[in-house]
């Protein structure tokens, strides 16, 4: 009978912990919190109307699909160095989709 080394056990446990977090259902409350803390002020400044939500509802918006929304959140995270984890990006995307876009999954 072979035993898994402690190092192997830790590696397997860590892998499944990360996998579970990535594939967990998005947390809409966390997505809203991140949007308010890291996105809203920049978007308010960008629109010029002190309302960060206007960027999501404007007629010439760049986001036209759920895939594009996820890509835009990821791009903002990378370009602005927001230091969000993949599950944070999923939370923000899910919140924005539910609140503003309403794309079908």
TrEMBL record:
Keywords: Heme, Iron, Metal-binding, Signal. Residues 26-100 form the Cytochrome c domain. Residues 1-24 form the signal peptide. The keyword Transferase does not apply. GO terms for molecular function: electron transfer activity; heme binding; metal ion binding. This is Cytochrome c domain-containing protein. It comes from Polynucleobacter antarcticus.
């Amino acid at each position: 009978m072979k035993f898994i080394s402690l190092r192997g056990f830790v590696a397997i446990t860590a892998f499944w912990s990360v996998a579970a977090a990535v594939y967990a259902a998005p947390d809409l409350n966390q997505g809203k919190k991140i949007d308010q803390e890291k996105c809203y002020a920049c978007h308010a400044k960008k629109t010029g109307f002190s309302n960060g939500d206007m960027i999501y509802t404007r007629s010439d918006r760049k986001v036209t699909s759920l895939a594009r929304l996820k890509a835009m959140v990821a791009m903002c995270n990378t370009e602005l160095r927001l230091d969000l984890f993949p599950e944070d990006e999923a939370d923000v995307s899910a919140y924005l989709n539910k609140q503003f876009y309403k794309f079908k999954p």
